[in-house]
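call fold(seq) -> tokens
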Amino acid sequence: MKSIGRIIFLILLCGGFTFSSAQTTVAVADFRNRSNAFYLDSWERAIPEFLVTELSSSERIIIVERSQLESVLTEQALSMTGLIDSATAQKVGKILGAQFVITGSINRVSGWTRIDAKIIRVATGQVRSEKVRAKSDEYLNEMLELLANNLRNVLSGEGRYREKLELDTYPTTYFLAATVGLAAVSAISNSAYNKKLDEYRAAVRLDEFDSKYDDANRLNKSRIFFAGLTVAALAGTIYCWINNLSPEEILANRKTGKEQIIPFLATDKPGSLRAGVSIRF
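ret:
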């Protein structure tokens, strides 16, 4: 039996046996600004451009070129924002040969800036939602980092799905380094002052008193100055540390049913075997 197994293995090997991971084809459309904040209009194209870059880094995801997507939309007399509709996304996705279309919107809800992404399965029109939100719209890059991570996980199974991204917004490390450095300078200044003070007290000639006194007085002012800076830096360190105990958060909200990851084997041509996983929403 072992010899038969070896023979079969050699036949497959000589016949061009290959093993590769399944790939998913995705088209990324624009995101529509549904908030009253007009300055978020720039996000409508910034978001898909970022997602295209991040998702294309995965070997399991093939991204349809934006120019190709725009060309199809022009031919079909459609707009990017029209892809928010599942039926339209299905139609365009089939023309492009995409398995999924990603689109979405930008919103301001209860003081939170939110990005809603919709993953539309072209074959069925089924929709899965992925959301990220932050208290400040200054965190666009961080929001997109979390969104791209979760989209990549959903589409390819790569990485780990993350519920949130914590941001240490206060520079505790810099203040701590400044505190240590200033404390060292203060110690050196204090040591130099004490040395000059001892020299002043030990002086026996009248002409030495003035020069020793001036030197000691100058060093005394320096040590007080650096001590003050050290205290200020220490206060800054404590302030930053306390605030970082409750860091700013970028939150992800998943609103769908459970997905299934199903392994499969398939043949593309004689002598070729393809293996991978399919994700069922």
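The helical segments are 2-14, 43-55, 66-75, 86-96, 140-156, 172-202, 206-244.
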